[in-house]
Amino acid sequence: MVDEFKVNAKSVAHLGIAKLLQIAQLPSDVDRSDFVSETHTIPSTGATKTVDEMTVRELREVKSALKAEREAREKAEAD
């Protein structure tokens, strides 16, 4: 699984299995290393956090928002 992330195992080992599973489910075109190190806005609160600081629920929210953005972009390109 760590090979799939293309990151150093030490940089994600502390995240826990639930977060790692969420990260593993990101679309293949998302750079997981960048995703883990960047800050993201939590849709329900507007707070900006890194994956390290997020709860699993917040990480799911961010993933859902990314999916919605991608779908909207693809729909706009198709129209």
Would you write up a description of this structure?
8% of the residues are buried. Helix content is 57%, strand content 8%. It has helices spanning 2-5, 9-12, 17-24, 32-37, 56-78, and strands at 39-41, 48-50. Strand 1 and strand 2 (48-50) form a beta hairpin. The mean pLDDT is 87. It is mainly alpha-helical. The chain has a two-stranded antiparallel ribbon with strand order 1-2.
Layout of strands and helices, then pairs:
Blueprint lengths: L1 H4 L3 H4 L4 H8 L7 H6 L1 E3 L6 E3 L5 H23 L1
Antiparallel strand pairs: 1-2
Main beta sheet: 2 strands, antiparallel
Q: What is the first-to-last residue Cα distance? A: 37 Å
- Weakly predicted, low-confidence segments: none
What is the β-strand count? 2
Q: Specify the oligomeric state.
A: single chain
User: Count of helices?
Assistant: 5
Q: Average pLDDT, to the nearest integer?
A: 87
Element order, helices and strands?
HHHHEEH
Bulk shape: globular
Q: Structural class, judged by helices and strands?
A: mainly alpha
Task: Report strand %.
Answer: 5-15%
In short:
This protein has 79 residues and is mostly helical. It has helices spanning 2-5, 9-12, 17-24, 32-37, 56-78; strands spanning 39-41, 48-50.
Keywords:
about 80 residues, mainly alpha, 5 helices, 2 strands
